[in-house]
Amino acid sequence: MNYKPIDWVDERLGTAKFTRKSLNKIFPDHWSFMLGEIAMYSFFILLGTGVFLTFFFVPSSADIVYHGSYAPLDGHVVSQAYASTLDLSFNVRAGLVMRQMHHWAANVFVAAIVVHLLRVFFTGAFRKPREINWLVGSLLLMMAILEGFLGYSLPDDLISGTGIRIAYSITLSVPIVGSYLASFLFGGQFPGDKIIPRFYTIHILLVPALMAGLLGAHLAIMWHQKHTQYKGKGKTEKNVVGVAMWPAYAMQAGGFFFLTAAVIAALGGLAQINPIWMYGQYIPYKVSYAVQPDWYMGWLDGALRLFPSWEITGFGHMIPTIFFPAVLLPGITFGLLMGWPWIERIFTKDTQAHNLLDNPRDNAWRTSIGVGVMAFYMVLFFASSTDVLANAFNLSLNFVLWAFRALVFVVPPIAAYVAYKLAKEASSASRAGRPRKAMVVSRSNEGEYTTEESDPRIEVELKRSAMHSEVPQPLPEEASFHAAEATGEGTSESEGGLAMSASSLSSAATGEMSERPSGGPEVYQVPPGTPGSGGGLFSPRGPKLSRSFEDPEEEK
Amino acid sequence: MIIRKKLGGRILVPVALGVAASVSGMALFSQGAAAATVSGSVGSANTNSLTYGGTSGAGNAPITNLKLDSSTIALGKTLFVENCSSCHGDSAGGTSRAPNLVGLGAATIDFWVSTGRMPLADPTVQAIAKPSRFTRAQTLAIDAYVSSLATGGPQIPVVNLGAASLSVGEGLFSTNCAGCHTITGVGDALADAVYAPSLYPATSTQIAEAVRTGPGNMPRFGTGNLSDQQVADIVKYVKYLQHPNNAGGIGLGHVGPVTEGFVGILIGLGSLMIAGYWIGGRAH
Rounded to 5 degrees, what angle do the CA atoms A63, A65, A69 make? Predict the structure, then answer.
């Protein structure tokens, strides 16, 4: 192989050292750490498909008479934005699949961010030293929701135009500055002809640039601080156990990108999304009954629907009703979200740095608060489809609305209570989170046989030696374990002060030691799915705090 | 080799599947594009107007009134007495339970009976469309009987879709109908257990009858609001909505972002989480 180009770059930029270090970087391997990756890959797909769409979309509210290939709108006066969206859907090769992929990717993007956020929340990954990344991630979520709304609005169809109208009213509802803000944003009264071009600039330039920067910061901080890991064998606050960046992690991540692309492409090709040709051009006097926003705005729409039409007066001025559900609620929501690491610290008084994650059941308070808050937003989310639910289940719309008004107060406490009880129950159950243990039959000096459950291995060993009974010979696997343990300490490398000591453990555990050719590459990984190494986050058996070799079933 | 084994078993298969699925997903656009190009003919293909009995007048009139056969009045009376008179009275004059039908016109009777809403099971809730109890001929006989009691009221319209404009219909539909029936015509729940029904099962005649007579909570659009031509245009667009251009794949019920959100979260994110669980570590 010709290394000259690599040398050439290295001699000028000194990249070899960095690359070597980077390729050996260790990432903990767990499926729940890949949720954020889904979001990242969706973002890449959004960038790719979005660039394609900009080639054909005309961000203009100027009227033209449509004579395109969609006959039911022939002769209609439509905006150029709407007409160009129709054209790119019907007349541009691959235009429709690109548009649909873009839209599906947006839905998946925000969903993945939310699930990633939940994982980070429930495992306590936001604790010191990762508060900054929590803030960056929260900002990314806000940006993603804003970006989704802007993009959804661009085609200027009847449904999205109604959404812009709602956004205009929400802007107006802000006390004191609302009318100025709305005028500033829309360049005058609604609808005007400036909002589509402005949304376009914000959608394709401002917000994506901010998001790309924040995403870079998010990753760089994660890289610098190193990824958290679940508690487990060989894992400490001061090491990282996992797979190396090259080749295992890179291959896994690359494969996952293609899987993400596959799912989004399949959705884009198979499932219709936002058929704007059926909606028609937005004209302010027209409305389609009961339109919903995209799902990530659903909780806001639900809050708008549920909030009673109170006219609240403050300082001699009426505060518009929608200010409370549409401005105050998201303000509080994101305020609490971003402030959570500090809010939690007030109660826990925990100023330690944490690199090991909590199991959600071991922190019942946080888990129950999280579940309660989640339930609150879930109710709001479902409340945004009151009309669809009423129609689907032949119920009165008013009944559904009032039911949701009750549920929004009833469900969160119940959910939180149940979560708290379940967490307490799970973590306090005897042997919770520990692997099943073998029964140890031992004979005392008097010849009496006793049967007892084995304790963690070392204690068993101590007891055995203390009892002066016949010490059973260790199993062959156990022997190799001890051998590996002895040598492992000598060979464990340190990377940035974090030692990797799991290699020997894992290789011994799976019996792959013999398969490894001498002098071959060291693979620092706990093979996922290894029998006996189970106990995932949501598995009934929970994390394995220590590995037991007494139970032959564990090894199978 | 551990690495090679790992690559083969856990990494390469997902990568290969992913690439294959991406390519096949992308390949589907050609179908979408192909469907799009025939969009122009979708509307105009729907030109078969419903002709039963004879029509009065001919030519290019957008709507003609169905001429009812006076020889069926006796049959109509029998059917009426059997099925309707217990509420509407022996001679359709109305009772405390149901309104007077005399002078309402054939279109009103025809809409309620042909859509199966009459006879009614429960007068306290909105009438439900169901399979009609009568054959078309029996329904027309009832129409003939009730309209023979007095003149006046809208007659049964027969829509000449060939004389109607799809794109004008779109504009009229989105202005006058979408506010309740939604822009896709799928219908939705309105306040207090009242709902705007789906337009998908409606025939051309039933659509025109509903526009002209305003059944239930629906407003009545007389000739001062909408001309016959405009009604025909609306009918043509509603008939198009029953089989719209579904470019882009499965239509997901035409209820907008609600189903899209569920598909995006459950199928999109759900399958990716399963994929992550598949290729990711499960050990602690």
Answer: 125
User: Is residue A316 scored above 90 in pLDDT?
Assistant: no
3-state class (DSSP) for residue B159:
strand
Per DSSP, chain B holds a count of helices (H) and strands (E) of 14, 5
Residues 6 or more apart from A470 whose CB is under 8 A from it?
Answer: A443
CA distance B259 to A385: 10
End-to-end, the C-alpha distance of chain A in Å comes to: 43
Q: Does the distance separating the beta carbons of A90 and B39 come in below 8 Å?
A: yes
Residue whose pair of structure tokens reads 């729907």 in the numeric block: B46
Sequence-distant (≥ 6) Cβ neighbours of residue B216 within 8 angstroms: B126, B127, B194
- For residue A283, the 8-state DSSP code is -
Question: Among A243, A245, A244, A242, which Cα is nearest to A232's?
Answer: A242
Is pLDDT larger for residue A474 or for residue A169?
A169
Asked if B279's CB is within 8 angstroms of A255's CB, the reply is: yes
- pLDDT value, residue A129: 94
Q: Indicate if the alpha-carbon torsion angle B148, B154, B155, B156 is positive or negative.
A: negative
Sign of CA dihedral A395, A398, A402, A407: positive
Nearest 5°: CA angle at A488, between A483 and A490? 120
Q: Does A231 touch chain B (CB under 8 A)?
A: yes
What is the structure's pLDDT at B20? Answer: 62
Q: Which of A112, A288, A539 is closest, CB to CB, to B269?
A: A112
Nearest Cα to Cα of residue B28 among A50, A267, A44: A267
Write the DSSP assignment of A378-423 as a string of letters. HHHHHHTTHHHHHHHTT--HHHHHHHHHHHHHHHHHHHHHHHHHHH
Mean pLDDT of B50-71: 70
> Mean pLDDT lowest for which of A108-117, A396-405, B24-33?
B24-33
Question: Interior CA angle at A175 toward A180 and A305, to 5°?
Answer: 110
The per-residue b/e assignment along A254-267, b for 16 or more CB within 10 angstroms, e otherwise, is bbbbbbbbbbbbbb
Helix, strand or coil, per DSSP, at residue B55: strand
Please check the confidence at residue B19 and state whether its pLDDT lies above 80.
Answer: no
What is the predicted pLDDT for the residue at A540? 40
Per-residue b/e over B87-115, b at no fewer than 16 CB within 10 Å? bbbebbeeeeebeebbebbbbbbbbbbbb
Residue A497 tokens read as 């002060």
Rounded to the nearest 10°, the torsion over CA A304, A305, A307, A308 is 130
Confidence at residue A551, expressed as pLDDT on a 0 to 100 scale: 40
* Pick from B188, B192, B250: CB nearest A271: B250
CA atoms within 13 Å, Cβ hemisphere of A381: 17
CA-to-CA separations, A172 to A149, A182, A265, A291, in angstroms, rounded: 18, 6, 39, 21
The two tokens of residue A372 are: 């309660």
Q: Compare CB distances from A533 to B260, B277, B283 and report the shortest one's residue.
A: B283
The CA distance from A159 to A277, in Å, is 11
Other residues' Cβ atoms within 10 Å of the Cβ of residue A71: 19
Residue A165 burial by Cβ neighbours in a 10 Å radius (0-12, 13-18, 19+): middle
Least confident stretch, A210-219, A234-243, B32-41: B32-41
Cβ count near A118 (within 10 Å) = 16
- CA–CA gap between residue B163 and residue A185 (Å, rounded): 46
CB < 8 Å to A536, chain B: 282-284
